[in-house]
What does this fold into?
Amino acid sequence: MIRIPRRATAIVAAAAVVAGLAACAPQTAEPTVTTLKTSVLSYMVASNWNPVTSPYLNTYFPAQQGIYETLIRLNTEIFEYEPLLAESYEIGDDQRTITLTLRDDVDFTDGTHFDAAAAKAALENVIAGPSGNYFSTVNPVELEATGEYELTITSQTPMDGTFLFWLAISPMVSPTAVEEDPDGLETTPVGTGPYILEEQVPDVSTTFVRNPDYRAPEDYPFDEIDFLVFDDSVAASNALKSGQINVAQLDPSLAADAEAAGLTINTGGGTNYELIWIDPAGAVVPELADVRVRQAIALAIDRESIKDSINFGYGTVSSQVWGEGSPYYVNGGDERYAYDLDAAKALMEEAGYADGFAITMPSTAIFAKYEPVLAQALADIGITVTFEQYADLVAMIDVDKSGKYGLMLNTIPDLDLVGTAQRNQYPQLADPLEVLNTGTPEEIADAQQEIGQIVLDDALLIAFTRTTDTWASVPEISVGVGVITGWPPILQAFRLAD
Amino acid sequence: MLLYLLRRIGVALVTFLSVTTIGFLLFNLRAPETIALRLLGPQAANATPEQVAAAVERLGLNRPLLERYLEWLIGVFRGDLGRSLLTGQEVESILGTRVPVTLSIVFLTIVMSIAIGTLVGVLAATRGGVVDRAMQGFAVLFQAIPIYIVALALVIAFSLSLRLFPATGYIPITTSFTGWLSSIFLASASLAIGGSLVLAVWVRSAIIDLRRQDWVRTLRSRGIAPRTIMYQHVLRNAAAPIVQLLGLNIIGLLVGTVFVERIFNLPGLGTAAVTNGAVGDAPIVLGVLVVFVFVIVVINFAVDLINGFLNPKARIT
It folds into this structure.
């Protein structure tokens, strides 16, 4: 009889346990083109779907767009507002009235017909809730159903990008559900969107299946969508590479690795990083009031090197803070301040500052990786920089009003993209800024171009890098990443690849 | 013993109150506008003073700090941890789904630590030589390697390369026992590797110490098999200090779960604390703090009681 050593028996037993466990592990299915499984951050999916009681319910993120539609939407892929539940809309000459002609072929999933009265009631519910505080506190509006399928909204102040943005994220929720079953609505949303909520584990996963009555199912290729919460980019990357999900937004530092694993990296606009001149009177740093000094700073920054060495090769190189597609984007302006150290030094000398000067700039942790390279770039033209740290961007919001600094580091995530500090402070911007409030659409477009040109020529905002959002996907799926500053893709931008 | 018991209860209460109060103050000493602004999310940069003021009022941040603190503290003792500032959900219901995840990881880690630690410790003590030195070397090594490195190495090896275990995600035990086990196996293993080796060092030391005792020699002289002496007598006597060590290890494990939950995307208490801390949702973070402090205080209390029961000298310290 063969005697098996006790140690060998133990090893075999342990191996059997591991193998057994592994065999019992849920096998990772091959990515399927009928199901979209995408990672989201936890705050990107609503867990209370009643607009009257949910403090954070809007359609800014794609998950909400699957259930709730809006009258108009911001298509981040082309950065334009476009009708959705409205067939068309028209803003009055006084910029205070918007008239929306609504679709007549829409029903909520509880059977309630969508018309002007329903749209008015839905908007009133949003305004009554904590999600609509722009309309309730900043720019109160009057709503009137001026026809069966025509809704007119009148605002107290001229409608700018902020107004349209809030209109574009105000969800149309069945007014019948809000009235008759407000508690049920918190967990069972009733909208007009292409999907209905199948199952949700708050902060973990949310599953949508097709709304069988949706008017245009061909616009949404996936029969099922799973939004899985991943608050860590490395974990999302691992899930993607192991086939547990098929789309994820990844940190750019992980994108090359994902690409090497056979995944597709979808890129778009991204976040602009720039130096903002916040001392137009020249009271803090008089040297910066000379446009040649600001232009010299712009010329001294090697953006290509920043992109390659700090942004892992992703992003774009441009002298202007606005990307293509933005109304402020200046055609041919990307190379306006291409890296040229000699020209920068010459401008400093011409301005009478060949020996340089010293400045202090506020900064936060998100800029930390750029601080050394910026300090070196400015040192190359004789400017010594000291960075003062603030806790976060929120803490820096009031910095530009403090009168302590001449330049500050910032990103510009806002819609109309003219930093709040610049408003009405620069004489050269006063006229075009006024036109934004009072002009016709054509005049506004011209004014936006003029603002873009002035900001670029006068180096009011000195772009030093533009990172990009990096969405990784299996080859069968593509993601239409937003062209501007890290805005999330709309749900319709998740497509089957060509 | 009664006096000792009362003193321990007093210490536990003071500890609980101190830590939770400091936590509450850290989150609420900032200006109400700063807290509200952060919660406005992507629109914070464009928020008008009116919007911020409305958010401050809606969140009740305009009330005196003492009033808010007392309300929160009374709520804690009633089991009401408040509502999420972002979603409006009850914190108890949010944490209710997360406690089982963290406890699952901790439970499996303890089981693995005891099994591996005891086995390796006994082997090191009885075999000596290379086995003993290797165990001690690995113990030092894995104490020095951060948990997240071990966790990432396990993911790369067993999930991405061998595809034996899921890289992320949690399956409740009520859905599938084997699915549950496989979903937390690597996370628990990440924590157990270091912990079990520390335990092994303790087991080894205790066994070597106990084997020199006279009563062991007596047992041996009576012809009792060495294996029986080891497992029925020596290990049993070594158990008490090891149980105390395990109690302390559990506290360390709770910290470790914060890392592994994030790496394996397990929706436990640690993930809740990190995620909601980043967006400033104070009630959830404070809720996690309360649970963690409660568990730690209870474990310390239990360890003190065991210590007092086993060692009468401890009762007078």
Q: What stands out?
A: The longest strand of chain A covers residues 141-147. The first helix of chain A runs from residue 6 to 24. The radius of gyration of chain A is 26 Å. Chain A touches chain B through 51 residues (CB under 8 Å).
